[in-house]
Specification:
With 226 residues, the chain is mainly alpha-helical. The protein has one domain (2-225). The protein has helices at residues 2-29, 39-49, 79-83, 87-104, 108-136, 140-177, 185-225; strands at 56-60, 67-69, 74-78.
Amino acid sequence: MGFIVYFILIMIIPLFVQMYLRNTYSKFLKVGASSGLTGAQAARRILDENGLNDVSVQEVRGHLSDHYDPRSRSVRLSSANYHGTSIASVSVAIHEVGHCLQQKDRYVPLRVRHALVPVANIGSNFSFILILIGILLSSANFLLLGILAMGAAVLFQVVTLPVEFNASSRALNVMIGSGLIRNEEEYRAKKVLNAAALTYVAATVVAIAELLRFVLMFTGMQNNDD
């Protein structure tokens, strides 16, 4: 029974969320925004309105590869969102601008996430190696090191949640305030933003489930040693 629950957590939920995101995004990619602006133009407008003239807006390859790079201070949008004039394109673009606004306001969870990046990278790269060594050698010490490394990566994902939800909230507010969306478009933009946020929730749930599985394995190994 426990294995079935675990399988549902790490396989079914992420798959369902990804399907929901793709369907929602595809649906509103076909619905034009009343402003008539492309995602790139909308992003540039909001950036300029907030005094972020030094932040560039760039086109990148890939599907939903949109992100904000704080090091180069650039909003990078996938081609569909860079050139698109749809509700989906504008919503995704302004979500990334939301991260710029967070950086400008020195939003604490964003600063914490940035500080955790080096530790999270180490955790992601070495946790499974240490855990595998611990399992193969039946070594509780190696397993514990792997769990601690994985814990750092999971902590990064947990901190990411408020960062992403806040960026979406900011995006919705500035789109409404700047007249990028009107009336029923608010509901549509919110659907897109919520669908995107759910992917982070699903990833975090999976990461926590994985961590708990290895913690239980460590506990069992300790009990056997006793």
